[in-house]
Amino acid sequence: MFALSRLRRWFRQNQFLGAYSAAMESHNVYERTAAARFALDIADGLDLWPDSAEPRARAVGKLHYVLGKGYETFEDDESQNFSRMALEEFKTATSYLTPADGADWARAMIALSIAYASSPEGNHVENIERAIEAAESALQVLEPERDHDDWLNAVVNLASYYVGRRREINSENVERARRLYEAALAQLGEAGTPVQRARLLIGLGE
After folding, report:
1. What mean pLDDT do residues 6-16 have?
2. In sequence order, what DSSP letters do the residues of 22-37 get, joined into one string?
3. Measured between alpha carbons, how far is 51 from 181 in angstroms, rounded to an integer?
4. Closest CA to 112 of 154, 146, 54
């Protein structure tokens, strides 16, 4: 009986590891989303965490992030429901991940900021403030050189939130946004794509 219990545990752990790997590595958004959901279902019932896996909280947080990224790409008659689901997944992801998780936590915070800023529900002014708080938090652990793409993503989105905020607050937000766009443009240098440079230049011209 004991041997059978160990075999079942081993089987579930390996099921989790396979689903987790698919959720992180698949190039198909539907496969990633389904694998993340399956991995989370298994994780809930694992009494012993696999030795070869990332720490439980980090792994669970990353799976919720993958789910959120999947939901935000789904578009059909229920796209608003998917937007709401994505926001909830990002909130859950950031409850498991911490600043000690570095870029993983920052990516979840950036995704949370975007979800808040684009949410059609709730108070728009409050959502923008939450988006600003999340993006600023992400930037606390990101370095321009080490985390180039994530840092640019956070900076550009934060600048856009300040621009969106200016009608409710004051022109100080416009200046903050301008400085962020200029910092991002300087960091981008010659390595950026024409689309990236155009987005920054458009932001500067707003």
Report:
1. 86
2. HHHH-S-HHHHHHHHH
3. 44
4. 154
